[in-house]
Amino acid sequence: MRYPYFLFIVLVAAALSSADPARAAQPEAAFKLFEPGKQVIVDYAGFGVFKGIGTAEYQYVIEKPLDLAAAVGEGIFPNTKGLAKDPEFLKYRKAGKLEGSHWAFVNARDYQANFYRWASAAEAPGVKLFYTGLALENAGLIAHAIKAYYAVAVHFPRSIGLTFWGTPWYVGPASLDKIRFLTHAYPQLGIRLDGADILVQNRYDDDLKNDVFVVTPGKLVLVDQADVIPAPVPLASHKVAERKSFRSCELVRYDNGHWQMLVDGKPFMIKAIAYQPTKIGQSPDIGTLEDWSLADHNANGKIDAPYDSWVDKNRNNVQDPDEPAIGDFQILKDMGVNTIRVYHHTLAKNKALFAELYEKYGIRIMLGDYLGMYAVGSKAAWNPGTDYSNEEQQRNMLESVMEMVNAYKDEPCLLGWILGNENNYGTANNSKQFPRPYYRFVNEVAKKIKEVDPGHPVAICNGDIHHLDVFAQECQDVDIFGANTYRGNQGFGYHNFWLPVSVLTGKPAMVTEYGAPAYGRNFSRDVAEKYQADYLTACWDDIVANSAGYGAGISVGGSLFEFLDEWWKTGAPPGYPDIIQDVTPNCGGPFLDGWYYEEWFGVVGQGDGTDSPFLRQLRQAYGAVQKQWNETVSK
Fold first, then answer.
1. For residue 536, which of 630, 623, 632 has the smallest C-alpha distance?
2. 547 vs 12: which has the higher pLDDT
3. Strand partners, 486
4. What are the boundaries of each domain within the chain?
5. d(CA 472, CA 274)
6. Does domain 267-280+321-631 bear CATH number 3.20.20.80?
7. Cα-Cα end-to-end distance for the chain
8. Which residues lie across from 92 on neighbouring strands?
9. Residues of the chain with pLDDT > 90: what percent?
10. Residue-level pLDDT at 14
């Protein structure tokens, strides 16, 4: 974080996730609908005609608009007049509670006002319906929210919104993912969506003109609660179609397309975390960031963060007698971490320390090279940055990679290699403008690695699924597709993430970054920390729900961002100790109040900063993830 600029969907929901969504109780509705509609599941075939299902010519033609409006209820297309009959809507409007931009209502805690404002908004109809559904979801009106999301798939599957960065957001697939999440989270409703898919061809660039939508809206059906969530696929009944054997692990593909990672012959999910502890006051922006793997500020012969950190149990920022030094490595082990992600090998050079991490704590590393991101390794100037067609810069980057490979290829602690860090976003490089030379170079690097080290898998770290099609075409020698992905508190999306990766690449996948800040403006610390905890546990639920035997079946794990807050990321200070943890929002994001706070992504905080780099305050997210990961033995 901080170096890259993340792609994300700007949609912020209340924290409906739970560690086990299948056991979630249906929330109490915040208000009662005046006109809930005559049908819980709308029989669209009874009110119109579906044409071209499963093709790019799909459309739904309404033949009985008044009857359909009565069936769906207020706020859902084509019921455009229902609100005018709602006395509460009229009261809200008369009282001036619905004034201002509808976007300002997305995070409003007056859920009824949120619903009324969006249902009456002058907005593109698909976007309007989606956010109306989101308002209903936040208000606890789950069945009506499902109707709203499904109406997007039926009427406006080609609707496109924009992210904070102005990149496309595909509302139709996002709506299908919402339905999938809600029906699974509340199986007691007995609602299941069968046979739905919205495939957007050519979606992986920023050119909307070449997008082709192949639409199959599927059908909502009423079923027994036990039949809402598909049963796991028994892998034992499927043949192994492909086996990639490495010294560190195996990647096994079954004949149904599912992928599984094995370590020592047993199923292994990557439970990784970004670990880059930074002493407060240091910053790469002013050239003072030291190698944490060598730092020994108290001169006791032990590396500071891994071995001398202590847990501030009562959060008084004082090391009390019952708070001995325990060290981050033990804290990581207790959390259930089995892998740490090291972003760039030259920023953490203590190879002996990583050997100890594995030998004493059982934690492996996935070691990376930035591969020209931020102009690191290419020896290019920041502006214009790395040019992936420049042969001299290619040689420089390959030299950096091979330095890493030759140093670590025989180390038992190594699980695999990660190339880049969302380079496709184009920070100090030209891959965003010219993606094909970049991905072609990635594949050449992967081949060179395997010539020297066939013992470890090679992964890419992409920025979400941007340029996924080019990756699929050019990176046949990369073993794992990895992506930094920030998509909200309900995971990443079967239709919007896992399925496209599976269909286009045929490779296993991991989420190389996911996370949320433990801060929200005008929210208490407890509320913000609980939101972060719910967000992270929901993301892991989704990672597991798409691993071998489940969902898309391609997930081999993920890397949480991050272990410890880094205080330099918003406003790099010129000195210390006149420094505070910054709460300036960096950019819009799918979080508690709709903003990124990049200095607050740790599941562990540094308190008031007076005992950095030693003090640790464990947040709610630490305990929540700890419970999940220690329960996730093989899954």
1. 623
2. 547
3. 8
4. 21-227, 267-280+321-631
5. 26
6. yes
7. 27
8. none
9. 88
10. 33
